[in-house]
Amino acid sequence: AIGWPATSVHPGVYAMVGAAAVLGGVCRVTISLVVIMYELTSALQLVVPFMMAVLTSKFVGDYFNQGIYDRCIELRQYPYLHEPDEYVSEEKAASIMDDDVECLYVDVGTLGEVMEKATSTHFGGFPLVRSATDATLLGYVHTSELRAQCIKLSTSGIVKDNARVIFASFMPQEEQAPNALDFSPLVDQTILRIDPQMAVSQVHTLFRQLGLKIILVAKGANLVGIITKKCFLHHLHILEGHSTTPHEMIEDTPDDGDEDGDRRSTWLGGPRVRPSQAPAQAPPSDSGLEKKDVTKTRLSQPSQNLESLRLFVSAFNPPAANACVEVDETSLSPKRRPKKSLGKWGNFTTVSVPTDSVRDFQDHLSTVRIAGTNWDKLCTAVVPWLIPALVGFLTATSGSLVEVAADLLNQLRFGFCTSNILRGPETCVNWTTWGEFGMNPFFAYITVSVLFAITSALLVWAFAPTARGSGIPEVKTILGGFVMKDVLEMKTLVVKVIGLSLSVSSGMALGKEGPLVHVACCWANWCSKLSKRYVENESKRREVISTAAAAGVSVAFGTPLGGVLFSYEEVSTIFTNTIMTRAFFAAVVAALSLRWWDPTGTGKLTMFEAHFVEMPAFEEYPFFILLGVVGGILGAIFVHANITISANRADGTPFRKRVHIVVEVALLALITAITSWPSEFTRGMSSATIRSLFQTCGRPHEESIDMTRLCDPNTGESVLGTEILMSLGIAAGLRFLQMSCTFGTGVPCGLFVPSLYTGACIGRAAGVMVAALNSHYHFTTNTINPGVYAMIGAASVLGGVCRVTISLVVIMFGLTNALQLIVPFMLALITAKVVGDLFSEGIYDAVIVLRGYPYLHEPGEESFGTACEDIMDTKIQCLNSEVTTFGEVKKIINETPHGGLPLVTSSTDHTLLGYIHTARLKSHLETASHSALVTDETPVVFKKKLLGAPADALNLSKFVDTTVLSVPPEMPLAQIHCIFWRLGVKLVLIAKNGRLCGMITKKSFVDHMMESHHGHGDGHKKASTESLDDCEGGLSAPLLAGQK
After folding, report:
1. Rounded to the nearest 5°, which phi and psi values hold at 1031?
2. What does the pLDDT look like over 225-246, one tens digit per residue?
C-alpha cells in the first residue's frame, strides 16, 4: 500500500529482533547476546539484524544510564573496577595515595613485639624501609607470612620472645645483632612501585590489567605513599559523585589476608587519622606532595609503637653533565646472558601505550573538554565511530572489487565473451572457449594462468614488496606494539588489491581471505590520517587497526561476528571493551556494505550455504574427532614444510641468488596449472569445488553447484567406491603440496581457501567411507551425510594450520549456515589445535619467527626460573637532574641514537627520577634555539627534580615521563611478561632501592623469549640493519664523547 518492495514481511522476525533489542538495552551486552539469540532461534540469517539492533540499543541506553548489572553493583556498593575511560582525570597518584602508611624497619625488634603486631594488625602487609630516619623502600612483608613465621618460631620451644628479629639481607654486616633471627626471606620485592606523578588513568590501567591489589608509591628511593585497589575504587566512587556509603559496608572488616587493611577505604571504615605528626623537610612543589604527612609505626621499640615519621626527599647534589649507569655485573645473577646486538630490529620502532594515552589526553581530550567548542566536542565523540564505519565500507568495496575481478579474470583461462569481454559465461550469449577459438585449451589455460601470476608478482616486486603474502603476521606484529615501515601505506593497499585479483584468478593454491584483513588494516591506516588525534598517536591508530581486522574477516567470509572474534583471538594484543564494540560496529557496516554491493549476485553473505535437516548421530562424533586429529597432523606438516621452503628461498639464500622472485612465481603458477588441469576437482576455482563438497545429495541445489561427480543421478545418493575416494585423495594431496609451496611467495596470497579445500576433500572422502561402513555394519540409523564430514574436515585442516578455535567455529557456521554443527566443529577444532601444538606452532607465529619480527606472545602458565637481573642491560646512557647548559643538552640529544634516556640525580647518584623521550625534547630544543633569549650557555634544569634551581634557567620538567614503570631486579620475568603484554609498555626500568641499575626494553625481552623457546634468538632472518636500534633507552649504548 505504501510502495515497499514486494517481499514477505515476517512478524516473527521482528519479534526475535525486538527481543534481542530489549535484552540488549537492559544488559548492554553485544557479541555474546547475538550468539545467544541466533543459537536460541537457529536464525543464522538474522545475524546482521541482531547485531544492528543490539548495537543500537546499547548506544541509546548508554546515553541515559549504565546497564542493570553495573547499576546493581553501584547500588550495593560492591568494589568493582570498570575499564578505564578515555576521559580520564588530570589527577596524579600523589593526590589519591594514602600517605599514612605503617611500615617495618630492617631492625624490627623482638619476636614478641613482631608477633603482637602481626596478630593485631588489620593490614595484609607492611612496606619495609631502612629506619625511622631513612625511608628507602626495600620491599613488602605480607602479614600472613609474617604471622605464620612468628607462630612457628614461638611454638618451637627453642626461640624466646625476646629474640631479636632483623632483615639481615638489607643491613650492613657490622650492624647486624649477633644470634638475631633473619626474616629476609619474607620480603616480597616484586610489589609494583610507581612515581607519585604518574597519572591516575595509568594507575587505573595497572589495577585493571595486571589484577594488582596494592601499589607502592616512591619518589626516588623513598616511600611516600601507598594505593590499594579498594582505596582507588573509593576515589573513583567520589569522582562519580557518590559520597555516601551503606552502613553495612562501612562496618565490614577485612580478613587477615587483605592487603588493603583500612587504608582510606569506605568499605573498611574510612580513613585513619594519626594522633601525632612530626615535622619533616618538604620536597619540591610537585602536585601537592608537600601537603601530605606520611607516617610510619616502628616495631623495634615498644615505647615507639605509635611514633610517626614524615618521609622526605633529600635535595639533589649540584652540577655535572650526563651520566652513564654501569653496574658492577659481578654482584648480579650469575645466570645473566651475554649482551647482544638487536640491530636486526633496527627498522622496528616500539609503541608505548601508557605514554600515548597520557599524551592523547593532554593534547586532545583535555583541550576539548576545557576550551573546545560544541563542534569540537561533537567531532571528538563521533570520529572514533566514523572512522571504523568508513573502514568497513571501504573494505567491503575493495573486497567486492577483488571478488568480481577475480571471477571475471578466472573465466579468461577457459574462454572469452565475444560480445563483451567483461561478461562471464553465465551472462554472455556468445561465450567462446579457447578450443572453439582455435587454440589448444590446455595451452591457453596454462598461458593465461602464468601471465596473471607474473603480472601480480611484477607489481609486488616493483612497487610494494610488503604486499606479498597474507599480511596477517605483519598485522599481528604491528598490533603487538611495533611500527613497520610501508606495511600499511597506500601503495601497499593499491598493489595488494590489484595483485590479489590477479593471483587468485591465476588458479594458484591461495585465497583472498587473509589478504583482505591486510587490506582492511591499510584502509584503517589511511582513514586515521583524516584525524589529527589519530595520525599523531600510534596507540590510538592501533585501536582502529584492531577494528579493521574484524571488518576484513567480515568481508572475506560474510561473518561479522567471526570477524570480531578473529581480531580478538588471533591478531590483536590489546582488545578492550571499547575496541570490541567499535570492531563490532565496523564489522556490521562491512557486512551491510557487502550485502549492498552483492558481488556474487546471490544476495547472500554466506559463501558455502548448505542445508541439513538431521543432526549428526552421537555415533559419528568419534569420526569427527578423528578428522580433528588428521587436521592437526596435516597442519603441523604444512607449517614445517612451508617454513622450510620459505627459509630456503629467502633473500640472501643460494636459491634466491639464482632464481628471481618473479621467476619463482612463474614456475609455481606453471606447475600449479599443469598439475591442476587433469582433474575437474582442481581445474576451476577452489571456492566452487568447496561449495559442491559441502552439499547433500538428493536435495535441490543452486544451478551454479555441480554435483555430478559426487552424486548418483539415478538414485540421488552419494557416490561410493574407490574411484571417488581416489579422486578426492589425489585432489587433497595435490592442493596440499601446492599450497605448501605457494604460501609466502612473491604475490598476495592467503591460505584459508586452499586449507578449506584440502580439508573438504579429506572430509568428503571420510564421509564416503563412513557411509560405506554404516551400510555394512549399521552402527547408526541416521543417514550418513558426506557433506557434513566435508565441512568438519575443512574446519579441522584450517584449524590445524592456523590454530584458531572460537573465531573459526563462528566463521565456519557463518560460511555454511550449519548452525546445528557447532558442537562437531568445536570438537574437531579443539582436537586439531591440541594435536598440532604437540608438533609446532601455528603458521602465522611460525612466519613471525622465520622473518624475525619482534612479536611478544601471551604469557603462558609456565614459570620462568629467571629474574629481571638475569637479562637486564646494565650499561645505559642517562641524563641527570643537575644544572647544565643548553648547548650541552642539545649536543647529547642530537648525538644519541636512542629513543629515550633515563633521568637520574647525578653522575654519582643514580636515584631514578623519570624518563626523557628524545624526539619530543629534540623538537623543543630546536624551537628554543631560534629564540634570542636562549644561547648555548643558557642554564638548563629540571626544576621539579631539583631544589635551588636558578630562576633564569630553562625548565625541562614537562618532558619527564613518570609513566615508565620501574621494578626491582628480583622481579620474576613472568611478571615482566605480563607488564609488557598487558600494558603495551616499550621498556621497564630496573631500580634497586630507588636507584637505577638496569633496563629491559620490549625488543630485548622478545629476543630473550625467542631464544628461550626456539634456541636461536639471533638465528632468524635478519631485518635491515642500516639504522641503529631505536632501543628506547639504549641497549649496549656506546659512551658519548665527554661522558662521565
Report:
1. 50, 15
2. 999 888 888 887 776 665 444 4
Give the residue-averaged pLDDT of 318-337.
45
What digits encode the pLDDT tens for the residues 995-1015? Answer: 888 889 888 888 888 777 655
Which grid coordinates belong to 519?
587490506
- Please list the residues that pair with 215 across neighbouring strands: 227
The CA-atom distances, in angstroms, between 544 and each of 355, 389, 481 are 18, 10, 14
Q: Over the range 372-404, which residues count as b (16 or more CB within 10 Å of their CB) and which as e?
A: beeeeeebbeebbbebbbbbbbbbbbbbbbbbb
DSSP 8-state class, residue 429 = S
Q: How far is CA 378 from CA 303, 386, 797, in A?
A: 63, 12, 48
H/E stretch holding 382: helix 374-411
Tell me: pLDDT of 8 over 50.
Answer: yes
Q: What is the spatial distance between Cα 533 and Cα 546, in angstroms, rounded to a whole number?
A: 17
Task: Give pLDDT tens digits for 523-541.
Answer: 999 999 988 888 888 888 9
Strands (E), 409-509: 415-417, 431-433, 482-483
Grid coordinates belonging to 756:
578449506
d(Cα 166, Cα 178) in Å, to the nearest integer? 10
Q: Please answer whether residues 913 and 941 qualify as being in contact, where contact means their C-beta atoms are separated by less than 8 angstroms.
A: no
Which H helix or E strand runs over 989? strand 987-992
Give the span between the Cα atoms of 1028 and 139, in whole angstroms.
Answer: 37
Query: What are 573-605's pLDDT values in tens digits?
Result: 888 888 998 998 999 999 999 988 888 777 777
C-alpha cell at 947: 631544589
Report d(CA 463, CA 456) in Å as an integer.
11
C-beta pairs of 926-930 under 8 Å, 24+ apart in sequence: 928/886, 928/954, 929/886, 929/890
What share of residues in the chain are helix, strand, coil (percent, to 5)? 50, 10, 35
Which set of grid coordinates corresponds to residue 509?
Answer: 593454491
Q: Which amino acid is at 1039?
A: L
Are 137 and 129 in contact by the 8 Å Cβ rule? The answer is yes
Residues 832, 794: Cα–Cα separation, whole Å: 11
137-142/125-129 β-pairing: antiparallel
C-alpha cell recorded at residue 568? 580478538
* Pairing mode, strands 987-992 and 966-967: parallel
Amino acid in position 83: E
The maximal CA–CA distance of the chain, rounded, in angstroms, is 110
E strand or H helix that includes residue 141: strand 137-142
